[in-house]
Amino acid sequence: MKSLLLLGVAVVVWNTTAWAQKVKVDYDKTADFAHYRRYAWGDNYLLTSQHPEDQNRIDMALRDSINRQLQLKGFVPDETSPDFRIKYEAGGMLDAQTGVKPDLLRTGTMGYETSLDVWTSVLGKMKITVTDVSSQRTVWQAVASKKIGDPKKFMRDLNKEIDTITAKTLKGFPAK
Fold first, then answer.
1. How far apart are CA 45 and CA 100, in angstroms?
2. All structural domains of the chain
3. pLDDT per residue over 11-21, tens digit each?
4. CB neighbour class for 168 (10 Å; exposed up to 12, middle 13-18, buried from 19)
5. Is the overall model pTM greater than 0.90, yes or no?
């Protein structure tokens, strides 16, 4: 009984940590981020299997959220004379995991029967790239990934979910 309880606790802990968002940041150590004040958008890329209207909602939520995060940091949108360009590449893919669990209440030929558990989720990824306008060099880049257990709930709370992701992804921008 203790073993089953420990296994149950381990599964709960594993599931809560498996759903956490991960962010990897890389930047040009020679870049001078202090002179960046104005930005413009580059060409974004969004790959999903959503309906076109939902894809547009996701695109707008990403753009609006990134704009808010940058403006909170003091950056100003300026399409005519930007210091840097920002763009995102984002999408999601179906992820499935399986496991076998014994049913100790029913007996079979081995003393118990097993059942197959299947967990599906969407693995969402987003890469944000900052390019210096004068040199055309990529000076900062972050890749975020997050397992989305309930895509319908994610879409219902789209703006809140996107804000959480972009805030964490842009936390390290500009590089110190």
1. 38
2. 21-172 (3.30.160)
3. 333 333 334 57
4. middle
5. no
pLDDT in tens, 48-97: 767 788 889 989 999 999 999 999 999 999 999 999 999 999 886 555 55
Residue 126 CA to residue 146 CA, distance in Å, equals 9
Any bridge partners for residue 90, and if so which? 46, 126
3-state secondary structure the chain: CHHHHHHHHHHHHHHHHHCCCEEEEEECCCCCHHHCCEEEECCCEEECCCCHHHHHHHHHHHHHHHHHHHHHCCCEECCCCCCEEEEEEEEEEEEEEEEEEEECCCCCCCCCEEEEEEEEEEEEEEEEEEEECCCCCEEEEEEEEEEECCHHHHHHCHHHHHHHHHHHHHHHCCCC
